[in-house]
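Sharing a chain and its predicted structure for anyone who wants a worked example. Both blocks are below, sequence first, tokens second.
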Amino acid sequence: MGKKNPLEQLAIIKAKKLEEAERILREKKKKLSIEEEKLQKVKKECDEVKKHKTDKLEQFREALDEGERTDKIEQMHLYLKLVEEKLKVSEKKVADQKKQVEKAEEEVEKGREQMLKRQRDVEKIKEHKQEWEKEMHLEMEKEEAKEADEIGSTRYILRKHRKRKE
């Protein structure tokens, strides 16, 4: 097979693009993992703030039941409002981080789709290469058969020519 596959350069390019798509997908999965870890962290912080609020609310109720001084009650009430604000901020962080996780998941899905497309491209090129090799093989067989016919014809003519001389 003396001829070079015309799609060889394209196959190399497609293979490199596939490798690049695989690398990008790995990076996107890593980013997703980081975003999920951040989400777990902010959820944990939010849960701690909720627990703190619940504890302070319970203390507030106990203070009311015990007939605590009004200024102390007012101070506890203000602190509860502060804790409530902190909880809202914490819940907002959780919601924002969930959006980041969703965005990262979408990016992973886009990366996966891109990689699958690149894989299909590489497979198509491989199929074309196999077809080309089959065609080249058939072409070589035809040439060899033609050469064999020519050799056979030449031998026949030479024998015939020798017999005439004799």
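Comments welcome. Helices lie at 8-66, 70-165.
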